[in-house]
């Protein structure tokens, strides 16, 4: 039955897109949803049908120009590229930086332009290279036993800014 459900889904829909807030809470929700999908519909990953939409975390405005940044590094790069940072970017500089607390804070047109519009959105396709390794990692990170998760965090915690960048 699971195979027929997956086939019906795959033949009807081209992709599954996960869209969550760009902050830490959104990353946690995304991890839970992806874990669910991997556990119950791994064939979606095998078929290359799982994507993560990447909403911007920052909006930068100066005059009539608007730029979007997806993370802190992108914000710093944007400010440097457009010479928006530094000594002249204080009060009265005409530069506005807004950090979104969540998708609900965006105006509908902003959400469409930055995250939903197929022409302008940023999607990341998720694939699994090694199913057994991915399964083992998910069991360690999301399972009921604390010891494997603690060992993973102790091993990688100092090396990585975010454990989400583990390459599987």
Question: Would you give an account of this structure?
Answer:
By secondary structure, the chain is of the alpha+beta class. The chain has three domains: 81 residues, Rossmann fold; 42 residues; 39 residues, no CATH class. The chain has seven helices and six strands; from the N terminus they run αβααβββαβαβαα. The strands form two sheets. A three-stranded mixed beta sheet has the order 1-2-6, with helices on one face. The model has no long low-confidence stretch (mean pLDDT 82).
Please summarize what this structure is.
InterPro entries: DNA_gyrase_B_C, Topo_IIA-like_dom_sf, Topo_IIA_B_C, TOPRIM_dom. The protein has 168 residues and is of the alpha+beta class.
Helix content: 40-55%
CATH architecture of the largest domain: 3-Layer(aba) Sandwich
- Quote the beta fraction: 15-25%
Low-confidence residue ranges: none
CATH topology of the largest domain: Rossmann fold
Give the strand order of the largest sheet, numbering strands 1, 2, ... along the chain: 1-2-6
User: How many strand elements?
Assistant: 6
Q: Could you tell me the mean pLDDT?
A: 82
- CATH class descriptor name of the largest domain: Alpha Beta
GO molecular function: ATP binding; DNA binding; DNA topoisomerase type II (double strand cut, ATP-hydrolyzing) activity
InterPro entries: DNA_gyrase_B_C, Topo_IIA-like_dom_sf, Topo_IIA_B_C, TOPRIM_dom
Organism: Astrephomene gubernaculifera
GO biological process, one term: DNA topological change
